[in-house]
Automatic annotation (TrEMBL):
Record's protein name: 6-phosphogluconate dehydrogenase C-terminal domain-like protein
Boundaries of every Phosphogluconate dehydrogenase NAD-binding putative C-terminal domain copy: 213-281
SUPFAM superfamilies (alphabetical): 6-phosphogluconate dehydrogenase C-terminal domain-like, NAD(P)-binding Rossmann-fold domains
Gene3D superfamilies: N-(1-d-carboxylethyl)-l-norvaline Dehydrogenase, domain 2, NAD(P)-binding Rossmann-like Domain
Disordered, as annotated region: 313-347
Amino acid sequence: MATATVAILSPGEMGAGIARLLRAYNFRIITSNSGRSSYTTDRAAACHIEFVSSDVDLINQADIILSVVPPSESLPTARRVGYAYTYVARGNKPPLYFIDLNATSPGLAERIEEVFARPGIGGTGVRFVDGAILGGPPEFVQTPENPGGAWRKPRIVVSGPERLVGEAGQRLEEALGLKWVGDRVGQASGLKMCFASLTKGLNGLAIQSFTTAANLSLLPELKEEISAYFPPLLDFLEKSVPATPPKAYRCVREMEEIADTHSQTGFSRAVFSGIAEVYRGVAQDDELGKERFDRRSRGTTVEDFAECIREGLSRKEEENNRANAAAAGKEWMQQPPGRAVERMLVD
């Protein structure tokens, strides 16, 4: 059995987890470190991912490309691959698959498909598959009940007219547990958007609720009431909220993509645009914004998370008050003398 080669762009937390899983299924994993941080490069090396010198080399060697990047990078990544494809010489190799697994709206998924529909790209070998990941990164878990261990995988849904064919495609479907949900590009992405509305959307509401409760000195009481009403909800939130800081920056654009998706049905963008701002606040927080998946120090509990956000909002309010006071003072100093006297008389 020939070794199939999968290119992962890029090996962040999710991409690295997928790389480890696929290596366990005897896939060769490659990536290009073009434009990636040293942090991402080091993580890829730790997962035994091979680096290639350029995107052209990556395309020449890969059987399948998995795009696993922040939503804001999904279209640029596709364009980057599409541009590089015009310089490749794949010869008689089978068609190249590009599977987009990013958190994008159906509309954006269609725009990504269009990149590979141009003459000289899709017409000569790139087959586009719309996909989405529901859940966290793959993880090899060993328990007392199963000391040999087993892979815990996210659910990965895919859609579109192009089905995976050939040995490499069939092996990838088995390794990742791909589930086909439709024949149209955008259906897998749409399912992701509806699913994340109820998971990351709820998580964003919980961040706001927990922080406000802490500000009112009511966080323990809030947790008690949630536990009494629906214990699994508290269990979920006590895991999901502290896990937010390292990925908050990604969630900003994801919430905007969700807003786009719902707006196509006729709903207002306001709800998820507002939740996007909650995640933006986490990403820009002086403490929580520094957190990395393997370097955690703050916000590892709901209590500390809420305290960080509360302190950050308080600092921001103080800064705004000082700025407004300075601006008001400057405006008063620039007023003509007569206007100043008039203002004093009115006061």
